[in-house]
């Protein structure tokens, strides 16, 4: 019988951090870090598939989902800061030997934590999360321009906050678009449309260059630490292209690699297959 999923809140650094949790303390830990513009909601099906075998935890970052979203005057929205909050969240829950699933923004947040505290990490599960220059596709060009000149390219960046852009992240490259639940992009857009959330997301867009500046450090972490790694990639992703997946193999030659017929978000269509790969991978390692 599948175990229930609980919806909880915890105070971390004066913020309310919402998270989904299933499983007991004696089970292997699987920590799921979501991407933009999503939240832990993106993992609802995967958690149901794996419930009972693992202690699974999926938080929402500050400014995302059900977690606190203070304004820019009260919180410094950088990837460094988000990683610190999530690291403190990990410590408060006393998570160790973590099997860390990272997707999109989960990459720069999770890899900062792994690089600072490699002893926390048992394995990496990497899904369309970029750590190599080869991974950038043409769809991110407007964001690159915004990083370089925020005044001139703000309107281009704001397109990524629209329903059209959110839908495209789920539907572009999908194998069967009718298998993608509209709930996914409608829920994401609800959070994006909240008063003041545009300023939060634009601040993180402007800070994205700080992630690129750390690629050398993360690649050095891969080479020296050789964490067990499972790479799962939507091969039709126009933002983080398939070359970014194969680039990991330069530094993690023992990594297990699967490419699926999907785009940036693959779990609506492929959550059962992804769950099978994760379950087999964790059991073997």
Throw out a few tags for this protein.
alpha/beta, 8-stranded mixed β-sheet
Q: Could you explain the architecture of this structure?
A:
This protein is of the alpha/beta class and 285 residues long. It has helices spanning 44-50, 79-92, 106-116, 141-148, 154-158, 163-171, 182-192, 197-207, 209-212, 215-225, 242-251, 267-284; strands at 6-12, 15-22, 29-33, 55-59, 98-103, 121-127, 228-234, 256-260. It has an 8-stranded mixed beta sheet with strand order 1-2-4-3-5-6-7-8, with helices on both faces. Helix 3 links the parallel strand 5 (98-103) and strand 6 (121-127). Helix 1 packs parallel to helix 12 and helix 6 (163-171) packs antiparallel against helix 7. The longest helix is centred in the C-terminal third of the chain and has 18 residues, at 267-284. The two termini are 25 Å apart.
The total count of helices amounts to 12
- Element pattern in H and E: EEEHEHEHEHHHHHHHEHEH
**Uncertain runs:** none
Question: What's the multimeric state?
Answer: single chain
Helix content: 40-55%
Number of strands: 8
Strand content: 15-25%
Distance between the termini: 25 Å
Structural class: alpha/beta
Largest sheet: 8 strands, mixed
| Mean model confidence by pLDDT | 97
Radius of gyration: 17 Å
* Main sheet: strand order: 1-2-4-3-5-6-7-8
What is the structure about, briefly put?
The protein is 42% helix and 18% strand. By secondary structure, it is α/β, with parallel strands linked by helices.
């Amino acid at each position: 019988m599948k175990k229930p999923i609980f919806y909880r809140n915890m105070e971390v650094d004066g913020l309310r951090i919402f998270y989904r949790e299933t499983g007991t303390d004696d089970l292997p830990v699987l920590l799921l870090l979501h991407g933009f513009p999503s939240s832990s909601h993106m993992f609802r099906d995967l958690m149901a598939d794996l419930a009972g075998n693992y202690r699974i935890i999926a938080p929402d970052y500050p400014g995302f989902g059900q977690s606190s979203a203070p304004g820019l005057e009260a919180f410094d929205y950088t990837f460094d800061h988000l990683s610190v909050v999530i690291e403190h969240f990990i410590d408060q829950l006393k998570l160790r030997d973590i099997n860390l699933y990272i997707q999109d923004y989960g990459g720069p947040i999770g890899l900062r934590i792994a690089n600072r505290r490699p002893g926390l990490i048992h394995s990496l599960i990497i899904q369309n999360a970029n750590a190599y220059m080869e991974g950038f596709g043409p769809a991110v060009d407007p964001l690159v321009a915004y990083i370089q000149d925020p005044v001139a390219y703000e309107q281009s960046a704001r397109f990524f906050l629209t329903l059209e852009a959110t839908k495209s992240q789920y539907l572009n490259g999908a194998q069967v678009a009718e298998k993608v639940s509209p709930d996914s992009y409608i829920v994401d857009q609800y959070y994006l449309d909240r008063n003041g959330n545009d300023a939060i997301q634009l601040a993180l867009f402007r800070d994205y260059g700080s992630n690129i500046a750390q690629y050398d450090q993360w690649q050095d972490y891969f080479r020296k630490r050789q964490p067990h790694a499972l790479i799962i990639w939507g091969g039709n992703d126009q933002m983080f292209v398939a070359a970014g997946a194969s680039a990991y193999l330069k530094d993690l030659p023992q990594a297990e690699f699967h490419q699926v017929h999907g785009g940036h978000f693959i779990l609506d269509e492929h959550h059962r297959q992804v769950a099978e790969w994760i379950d087999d991978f964790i059991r073997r390692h």
